[in-house]
Structures are given as C-alpha cells and as structure tokens.
Amino acid sequence: MIQKSPERYSTTVEMQLIVDGNSFDVAQVGNGKAVLRNPEEMQPSEAVLVITIDGQEEHRAVRLPNGISKSQPEVAYKAV
User: pTM for the whole thing?
Assistant: First the structure.
C-alpha cells in the first residue's frame, strides 16, 4: 500500500536590517549575528530586523553594539 505524503512547499523568507533609514539585505541570522549581503559603514546604533515569512512580517528591535563594517558582512546584534 502506498501512502501519500503531505504536500510540501518552499517557504518564502526575506530578511532586512533597517538602520537609520538604510535597508540592508540579510542572508542569514542566528546566535545574535546577522550576515549582510550589502554592508556599509554604520556607527553603533538601534536598528530593526524585519523578517518576512510567506508575506507575514515580524519586526524585532535590536541594538548593533559594534555598528556595521563594510569589510565585514557579519554583524552582532542584541535584542532591545
């Protein structure tokens, strides 16, 4: 007897880091770090991590204690 498996689909996930009106595409997040696709120099500041999963947006207020370095795509963050 053949059992049908439930339908599977790929979830659409988009992530952005918003800092002082600038939007940075995020490749991945985890363990208090985000990897940016397009880093630019930014001073330590408050930011918003926007995670969109299948059209549902979630906003997380974060602090960037070390800012952003153009030469380093990995950015440390802490929840506010």
Answer: 0.85
